[in-house]
Specification:
heterodimer; A: 110 residues; mainly beta; five-stranded antiparallel β-sheet; B: mainly beta
């Protein structure tokens, strides 16, 4: 069945790069997404990548996709304390539904 | 900025009460979703709709029900709330292009 896995926690120092990893199982996924959730809030779409791309960069965010290994990563350059949040990876199952990972809690220490 | 709204944002209620969580979007999206988010952060899809008069159960069984009488409105109802229903409920809607799934701010429900 479809499954998306993420590590649960990541802690970095302010100014360092953060890399959040995700693996998925559905090779037919056309789009893969990264969402950010701040405390007490809904999910905010950060970025997405189409399955025929290897990399997408958007300001401090870089998404890398290894389709062979079904591995997706989100790199945040120059991580700031305001980046502290939970980050969710999601795949599009082509049935109009998104399958979410468990979320990775990113903690940024000054 | 996404135009999707949920009310109430917070609700504390006693066991056995009937409650309705409201979700509205002004983007004209056909697809709408309800997720239940556990304290351990994982999201579970409990209901979805692909248009007016269309509702389907999601991957996680839920005692709640939904209706879709108007495109912009997708309310979720619990006929008799129980402590096991305590959770955060997130509504989302989706447009025609794949990068457009927007979430509401959520309703945090506590059943005593």
């Amino acid at each position: 069945g479809e499954d998306v896995e993420q590590s649960l926690f990541l802690s970095v120092r302010e100014g360092d790069s953060s890399v959040i990893n995700c693996t998925y199982t559905d090779s037919s996924s056309t789009y893969l997404y990264w969402y950010k959730q701040e405390p007490g809030a809904g999910l905010q779409l950060l970025t997405y990548i189409f399955s025929n791309m290897d990399m997408k960069q958007d300001q401090r965010l870089t998404v890398l996709l290894n389709k062979k290994d079904k591995h997706l990563s989100l790199r945040i350059a120059d991580t700031q304390t305001g980046d502290s949040a939970i980050y969710f990876c999601a795949e599009d199952n082509q049935g109009g539904k998104l399958i979410f990972g468990q979320g990775t809690e990113l903690s940024v220490k000054p | 900025e996404a135009d999707i709204y949920q009310t109430p944002r917070y609700l504390v209620i006693g066991t056995g009460k009937k409650i309705t969580l409201e979700c509205s979007q002004t983007m004209g999206h056909d697809k709408m979703y309800w997720y239940q988010q556990d304290p351990g952060m994982e999201l579970h899809l409990i209901h979805y709709s692909y248009g007016v008069n269309s509702t389907e159960k999601g991957d996680l069984s839920s005692e709640s029900t939904v209706s879709r009488i108007r495109t912009e409105h997708f309310p979720l109802t619990l006929e008799s709330a129980r402590p096991s229903h305590t959770s955060q409920y997130l509504c989302a809607s989706r447009g025609q292009t794949y990068n457009e799934q927007f979430f509401g701010p959520g309703t945090r429900l506590t059943v005593l």
